[in-house]
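Regression test case RT-17, inverse folding.

Input:
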């Protein structure tokens, strides 16, 4: 049974909206909690992907790409198909609207579902890559992950190399330019809003600390407490969609 989305009290929403209104350069840093209201599981809360099966976490690795390719392909085809059955939710849409209105300068995400882009956010920094693209391990040729679902889709049409999703696998480094740009963005911001992340995976979870060190205000909307709660000037234990909707109404 899906948890009833929880919206925070009106006074808290007004305070949060005030922080957003006063800030000059706002960056949103998002995690899988952004997409659960679309119907996609996150990773570590009840029902999350890594909670459903330890095997899933093992398959999301370079080791599985190299040594268990058939199961690796099956797992990622399942995840790519899942993306096609769901769509961005109000939280994604409000962030995209706030970017258009100049209220949010940029979105940095750990998510690979492509929902920020589908909702209209632009120039999103994709720390963990994207499930919307696949590429050849040999020649790097890139194409839409729809092709990966075809029987022949696992072999590169140019060099016959293995095709793989363009996500960061466990055991792999993040793209250094994306990581550098993300640190640049959060340390130049005067407000960083974290939405739906347990903040346990590094180096992504170093971004809030870097922002705090650089003097930014930090706010988080997350259903559960995180290990970095001490960093936040405001911590809303609530669901993202109802919270952003209430904030958008308060912003007028
Ligand atoms: N509203 C607010 N918070 C939510 C919601 C929601 N609708 N749904 C879930 N959450 C919270 C959960 O309570 C949890 O604390 O979002 C958090 C999601 O945490 P994780 O599942 O750990 O996801 P994330 O932090 O994005 O994981 C980081 O780990 O496995 C890797 O590559 C994967 O990008 C992922 C990274």
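Golden output:
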């Amino acid at each position: 049974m899906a948890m009833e989305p929880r919206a925070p009290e009106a006074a808290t929403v007004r305070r949060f909206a005030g922080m957003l209104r006063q800030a000059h350069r706002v960056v949103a840093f998002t995690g899988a909690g952004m997409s659960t209201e679309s119907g996609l599981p996150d990773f570590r809360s009840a029902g999350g992907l890594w909670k459903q099966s330890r095997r899933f976490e093992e398959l999301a690795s370079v080791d599985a790409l190299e040594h268990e390719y058939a199961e690796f392909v099956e797992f990622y085809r399942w995840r790519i198909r899942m993306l096609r059955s769901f769509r961005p939710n109000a939280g994604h849409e409000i962030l995209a609207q706030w970017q258009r209105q100049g209220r949010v300068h940029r979105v940095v995400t750990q998510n690979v579902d492509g929902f920020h882009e589908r909702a209209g956010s632009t120039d999103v920094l994709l720390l963990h890559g994207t499930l919307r693209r696949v590429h050849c391990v040999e020649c790097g040729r890139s194409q839409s992950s729809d092709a990966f679902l075809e029987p022949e889709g696992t072999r590169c049409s140019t060099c016959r190399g293995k095709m793989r999703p363009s996500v960061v696998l466990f055991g792999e480094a993040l793209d250094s330019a994306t990581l550098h740009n993300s640190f640049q963005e959060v340390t130049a911001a005067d407000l960083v809003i974290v939405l739906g992340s347990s903040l346990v995976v590094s180096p992504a979870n170093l971004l809030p600390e870097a922002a705090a060190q650089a003097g930014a205000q930090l706010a988080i909307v997350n259903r559960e407490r995180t290990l970095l709660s001490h960093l936040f000037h405001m911590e809303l234990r609530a669901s993202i969609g109802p919270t952003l909707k209430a904030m958008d109404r308060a912003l007028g």
